[in-house]
């Protein structure tokens, strides 16, 4: 199965991890991984593509004296209060100054970091392959509390209404008090496979996909299952919810549109290659990107093609696009950055130092 290849090359325990961090747009700059194991800020004003800073610099060190070598970056950077937060394959969570790229603080976890960090109310939440959710002071990196799951956490925590929802490769979803880390549900929800899809919350319903080829809707207050939908391969993308529809890409190559209330299938569209990148909306066009770097513009109402043919980037794409109005920014494997417009035009962003 293609999913076996994804698991073998995705995150941990491989000789040469590549990473698949998506870009983050902040005003007139993109913060993105433009080379393996390197984070950078790129000026996109007037399409200049000028690199403002790179991290790490030569011979930068950890507090213990070891040389900084992120190896690969899977974690899409998150920016809050002019600080860039991201985790790396080396197990470190980095907090960098947005303007300069200087290190504000750094924290070592017990394993590679694959999911994104979340910053809310001056607190950082991030999961690690060591199975822990780390909760830290955003300004200093000082630990507030941590929670241990039964296996690796490859997803991004979801923080809402004083609750942290965490999906783990131990097949469970946890609901934790955001202040104390105490469990809110009587027991975690348990699926039939590991959970690598970041949850989404909408109107009291938690949506999460898994390696059991199912996407599920859970009651956010109790963790009880409301419905489930089964496909032919793994769900590894974060679902997108628009009105009463859930859009989810799957490693079977299809994107599914489901009714958010009962999980009934509205439509499906086959892209011909695994979809790990999350769907995004470019105004009224649903953008789907598959592993082969083929971009589909779809009508979200019926799944029909808006663009007559897919755009071919001729690059492998596993990262989540960043949408801003009628434009999306996409990071391909190897660090190439593309812009895509809602009318189906793609452009490689040429970088200069």
Overview of this protein structure:
It is built from 1 helix and 32 strands. The chain has 353 residues and is mostly beta strands. It has a domain at 1-148: Lipocalin (Beta Barrel). The strands form 8 sheets. Strands 1-2-3-4 form a 4-stranded antiparallel β-sheet, with no helix packed on it. The protein has a 4-stranded antiparallel β-sheet with strand order 5-6-7-8, with no helix packed on it. Strand 25 and strand 26 (285-289) form a beta hairpin. The longest helix has 9 residues, at 2-10. It is globular and about 55 Å long. The model is unreliable at 1-6 (pLDDT under 50).
Give a brief outline of the structure.
The protein has one helix at 2-10; strands at residues 24-26, 29-35, 38-43, 50-55, 78-80, 83-87, 92-97, 103-108, 118-120, 123-127, 132-137, 143-148, 158-160, 163-167, 172-177, 189-190, 200-202, 205-209, 214-219, 225-230, 240-242, 245-249, 254-259, 265-270, 280-282, 285-289, 294-298, 311-312, 322-324, 327-331, 337-341, 346-348. It is mostly beta strands.
Give the SSE map.
Elements: H1 2-10, E1 24-26, E2 29-35, E3 38-43, E4 50-55, E5 78-80, E6 83-87, E7 92-97, E8 103-108, E9 118-120, E10 123-127, E11 132-137, E12 143-148, E13 158-160, E14 163-167, E15 172-177, E16 189-190, E17 200-202, E18 205-209, E19 214-219, E20 225-230, E21 240-242, E22 245-249, E23 254-259, E24 265-270, E25 280-282, E26 285-289, E27 294-298, E28 311-312, E29 322-324, E30 327-331, E31 337-341, E32 346-348
